[in-house]
Amino acid sequence: MPLVEEFESSGRFLFRWRSYLPLVLLSVVGASLVEFRYPGGSHVLDTLWEMLCLLVSLSGLAVRAVTVGYASAGTSGRNTRRQVADSLNTTGPYSLVRHPLYLGNFLMALGVFLFLRVWWLPLVYSLAFALYYERIMFAEEAFLRGKFGVEYIAWAVGTPAFVPGRSRWRAPGRPFAWRTVAKRESQSLAAVCIAMFVLEVLGDIRHTGAVIADPIWVWITASSILLYAMIRILRKTTRILDAGRHSPAPEV
């Protein structure tokens, strides 16, 4: 099979299972706990580093939120069996990079992999992400090029694939769908906070030999879970989050 077709075929396969990459890397995270130490032996410095990692993850969540909030209907869904795009997104975050949701995913998980301060862990994650998502992005772009032709090529030529460059922000011609963001990204926020809380507890066990529930992480994690639960309840029992919806579920 020619490489172009092979890349596209493997990209479609990986696209279907793209949500499970972090799970594959859990064993690597567990192995890295052996090297866990407080920076300078200070719990205060450890907490400051953890807050920095949380900010990295929140920056990725912000990228996702802006992308999802301005996305056109019928594009970039949570679908796993096939590509879907009723129109071509070229404004908002898509005017800066061609794959802003994947950029958001990368930053969200990067914060988690930086959490344990093991130098090789984020490198392993970054390499795995690049190898895994390169094929997915190749397959997605082949689909978009085949469907939108010249329109896609004109946009892709001036827009970087993943790392923002000199391209200029083009304002979306639609309002920000905050309800869509609330429904789709509250789960992501809770997942990040839970992951970091678990790593915080495991790291403290490794360093002190005791189970320590840091109050700041208890508060952060409980707040994220409560927010997610409230939004789930609103979705199940009311129509508050249905009004004004214009975009579908985001990529994962």
Report the radius of gyration as a whole number of Å.
20 Å
Q: Whole-Å distance between the termini? A: 29 Å
Low-pLDDT regions: 245-252
Number of strands: 0
Number of discrete helical segments = 9
Query: Which structural class fits the helix and strand makeup?
Result: mainly alpha
Order of helices and strands: HHHHHHHHH
Mean pLDDT: 83
Proportion of residues in extended strands = under 5%
Instruction: Choose one word for the global shape.
Output: globular
Report the sheet with the most strands, covering strand number, pairing sense and barrel closure: none
The residue fraction in helices comes out at 55-70%
How would the blueprint of this fold be written?
Elements: H1 3-16, H2 21-24, H3 26-32, H4 43-70, H5 100-114, H6 120-148, H7 150-157, H8 178-208, H9 215-237
Helix pairs in contact: 1-6, 4-5, 4-8, 5-6, 6-7, 8-9
What would you note in describing this structure?
- The protein is an all-alpha fold and 252 residues long.
- The chain has nine helices and no strands.
- The radius of gyration is 20 Å and the shape is globular.
- Residues 245-252 have low confidence and may be disordered.
Any key phrases for this structure?
mainly alpha; 9 helices; 0% strand; disordered C terminus
Summary of the model, kept short:
With 252 residues, this protein is mainly α. It has 9 helices and no strands. The chain has helices at residues 3-16, 21-24, 26-32, 43-70, 100-114, 120-148, 150-157, 178-208, 215-237.
